[in-house]
Design brief:
With 71 residues, this protein is mostly helical. The relative contact order is 0.07.
Length: 71
C-alpha cells in the first residue's frame, strides 16, 4: 500500500468516526429513555368518563395539583 492510499482509508476519516459516535450516543440515549420510562411510571389520572386504549374520553373534572400557584 502506498502512502496516499493508506492516508485515504475510511478509518482515517474523522468525520466518519464523529458520525459513528453520534449514532451510538443517540442509540444509547434512546435505550436510556426506555429504561427510565419503564422504571418510573406516571401515576394514573382520575377520569370522569370511560377510556379507550387507556386514553380518557373526557377531560378530567379538575386539573391535577402540581404544587405551583395558579396565575
Amino acid at each position: 500500500m502506498d502512502r496516499r492510499t493508506r492516508d485515504e482509508a475510511w478509518y482515517r476519516q474523522p468525520v466518519l468516526w464523529l458520525g459513528a459516535l453520534l449514532f451510538a450516543a443517540s442509540l444509547g440515549g434512546c435505550a436510556l429513555m426506555i429504561v427510565l420510562g419503564a422504571r418510573h411510571a406516571d401515576p394514573p389520572v382520575p377520569t370522569a368518563g370511560g377510556e379507550v386504549f387507556k386514553v380518557p374520553l373526557a377531560k378530567p373534572a379538575s386539573p391535577p395539583d402540581t404544587g405551583r400557584p395558579r396565575p
